[in-house]
Amino acid sequence: MIGPLTNSSLSGCVSFRELLLHYQVSSLFKYKKRSRFVSGSRLSQALLKVYADIVHRVTYLLLLQINYLITMGGSMIDDDWELASSSSEVRTVVLVGRTGNGKSATGNSILRRKAFKSKTSSSGVTSTCEMQRTVLKDGQVVNVIDTPGLFDFSAGSDFIGKEIVKCMDLAKDGIHAVLVVFSVRTRFSKEEEAAIQSLQTFFGEKISDYMVVIFTGGDDLEDNDETLQDYLGRECPEPLKEILHLCKNRVVLFDNKTKDEKKQVEQVHQLLSLVDMVVAENGGQPYSDEFLAELKQGAMKLRNKREEVESLKGYTKQEILGLKEQIYRSYEDQLRRITEMVELKLRETTQRLEKKLAEEQAARLKAEQIAQAAQLKSNDEIRQLRESLERAQRETEELRRKSERCTIL
Ligand SMILES: Nc1nc2c(ncn2[C@@H]2O[C@H](COP(=O)(O)OP(=O)(O)O)[C@@H](O)[C@H]2O)c(=O)[nH]1
Ligand SMILES: [Mg+2]
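Structure tokens predicted for Immune-associated nucleotide-binding protein 8 isoform X1:
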């Protein structure tokens, strides 16, 4: 433990905290300023704004986590890593879905405690990604990440996928399963369809291999004497069918209201069996990406260095503490670098998007010009044809009149 370091670490991080505050305050302003966008020439500008907003928010989230790690004196990072590396039984699952579908309630059912704020609670809904952990009776550790309404944004499907990157920061060890939460109490919407598409766009097609569908509202079905199969038989639009097909029908029904302990255990058991299936089908490899890998590497380095220092002989306690402080500061620097890398990556994405949008806009403009020119040309041709026709009619008339005069004569 490097508990005694906490105070000195904190005092060394005043400027970092100011940075965090800056992001926190400006995030609030940015959020308030965001408006709903429409298509047309303002689309590219609007999307760029949205992406800038994401860059900002992801940075804020990373800073928030760094701040958390700092205030925890660093021990948290190491423990997390040791736990993850020593136990193959760790499962990290992420709940995604439209606000109100029951993500937080499902998270609480999995954890068997009220860890996440659900809508009915007076303290409101989930506003940012949050991770909670539970240890099952058999020793399996389950990390549950709850997310805010990633399906609620109306600024384009790509954007929704981008929001999800935030929670990846919480899942250093990779994501074992993405739990897509729907509710039998609300109709499957176009937005939900778009959100799944964006999930795939952002994470790549392989994300389907990690998806498990959860339907909440099992109590409602039970009240109507219906099973999930009955429900899907009458209420399964084509896009939902496709989603179920994509995730090989890994679907489970949850009743988050039940007080029946047997039912509570059984539904979580069913879900975790599906998660196990996902893990097995993916050869035990959780979903990961480049910056997740970087975070993991940093945590591993920190652990090794700390172990080295702890095994040093002939140093005073004070000297060991000093060395540990140095190591921790270098880890902080690394976290900052990763934050910068993420910012850069997202900025590059923004630029790529900007370029793509500009190209699309130029192509659209060109197509419009060609269509306009074609229209003008065809108008001109029609006019010429009409004139020729009229001329021909006049000439025919003239000839007819002449021939009539000839007949009379
Ligand atoms: N009847 C019933 N209500 C549920 C169920 N799951 C969630 N809810 C309710 O749905 C509302 C939204 O739940 P919440 O977990 O906040 O949704 P989130 O926005 O997706 O996190 C709350 O009022 C929950 O009590 C369920 O299985 N049955
Ligand atoms: Mg919630």
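DSSP finds 14 helices and six strands in the chain.
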